[in-house]
Amino acid sequence: MSNPILTTQNLTIGYQTSSKNVRCVARDISVCLEAGELVCLLGPNGAGKSTLLRSLAGMQSPIAGEVRLLGDDIYKLAPSDLAKRLSLVLTERVDVGMLSAYTLVSLGRHPYTDWWGKLTPEDEAIIHWAIKSVGALHLAARQVRELSDGERQKIMIARALAQSPMVMLLDEPTAFLDLPRRVEIMQLLRQLARETQQAILLSTHDLDLALRLADQVWLLTSEGILQVGAPEDLVLSGAFANTFRSEGVEFDIFSGEFNLHTPVRGEVHIVEDGIASMWTIRALKRAGFQVIKSKNDLSILIELISNQKQLLWKITNSRSVNIYNSLYDVIKYLNLL
Ligand SMILES: Nc1ncnc2c1ncn2[C@@H]1O[C@H](COP(=O)(O)OP(=O)(O)OP(=O)(O)O)[C@@H](O)[C@H]1O
């Protein structure tokens, strides 16, 4: 059953660049964020992802149209009411001085505390739960300025969680993180969306992770059009390939990966199956060879020979047979043919 939390109607976003001129970034956006869903906002550099997030967070007035949070016009909500319903996590490193991670997370309770910022036992329990939810209890006493990017990102997410919002917006939460940390943060956000029934929208350049984890993708094109659907819908419609098509790079609908256009240097046949063969095929493709999984005596044939000690590649062509013990040497040899 649909449970919309945040909706937009004919939203047009952009900037007033002078008293007469407006720079329109994206137009006519009518979408909704549902409870319990993780939505990834994708698009090329400069498409308008941050502008859209700021507009949805009520930080930037739209050029036209409206944003409603549980039915209320977001731009008319009192700041404290807005803060109880929506939290925004930005990527920029903010200087938080000597704050401990716990104190930073506790600031998320600000909309609920009294004038003095006194925390009740209930506030303390929520702060503890938020830190535990992101797996950061061991970081609670540490100074934020001493944390790594990934650790700090978890604390920023915990702060947003402590706000007990219904919607969480995150601008590139995985920027600057290594691959395992990016996967961890994305999985964490998906799990949080499920468990807390919050709607979570994040912008990212991690196309592969978004394809694997998002319930819905919002794809913002360079022309300012927002296309919405399950990740696979956007792949099948060609929207994904069209949006990210650029010189030298192409989205491969079969593998779901981006491939570099490499001029074809020749054809190679391979007969083995399995993991070593799969990585051999990748190496050959990277080097510009077209790989065919069958035997052909007239062309170059690669066979994998594995024993308990090592893996060998046997290359047979019309003139010679050579054996190598690394893919690096295989490619070097093929490049000379
Ligand atoms: N304050 C501003 N005034 C005028 N134009 C702006 C302003 N901030 C951003 N823009 C322009 O709006 C467009 C969208 O920028 P935005 O930062 O939202 O893109 P983005 O999709 O988040 O990009 P990236 O992936 O590179 O972070 C860009 O053309 C940018 O130059």
TrEMBL record:
Residues covered by the ABC transporter domain: 6-247
Topology in membrane: Peripheral membrane protein
InterPro entries hit by this protein: AAA+_ATPase (IPR003593), ABC_transporter-like_ATP-bd (IPR003439), P-loop_NTPase (IPR027417), Siderophore_ABC-ATPase (IPR051535)
SUPFAM superfamilies per the UniProt record, alphabetical: P-loop containing nucleoside triphosphate hydrolases
CDD domains: ABC_Iron-Siderophores_B12_Hemin
Record flagged with keyword Membrane: yes
GO molecular function terms noted in the UniProt entry: ATP binding
Pfam short name (any one): ABC_tran
Keywords in alphabetical order: ATP-binding, Cell membrane, Ion transport, Iron, Iron transport, Membrane, Nucleotide-binding, Transport
Record localization: Cell membrane
Protein name (Swiss-Prot/TrEMBL): ABC transporter ATP-binding protein
